[in-house]
Amino acid sequence: MVHGLDLYRLLVVDQHAEAITIARQYRRLRALFPDDPSALAPEPWRRFELLQVAGRILTDPSLRAIYNELHASATASMQKGVVRCASCGAPLQVGEPCCLYCGLLRLVEPNSACDAVWRWTAGRRAS
What is the pTM for the complete model shown? Predict the structure, then answer.
């Protein structure tokens, strides 16, 4: 976990998924981007780069083992009650309109710690 960013969540795969499953999911998500990503705007470019990093790390057995060690130790020490991005799991900075890692607008998962923020962001999207 790099500064709270969860690569498994970014690729929408389980932590115990096989490498072939992760590679398939990476290819599915990669297909959503154009063949020439240099023409992308800054926000989609950032998502593309994160996708590539996640695919590279999670499909290489040695890099994945190192990441899993870091992920386990970081998960144990992560702060409770921190508002996290619904897409990549990174902590959201107060006052930022979008996630600094993946660029997703401030959407958060509803739970007891952030129901008020969830309702506020949901109301903003509807209008």
Answer: 0.61
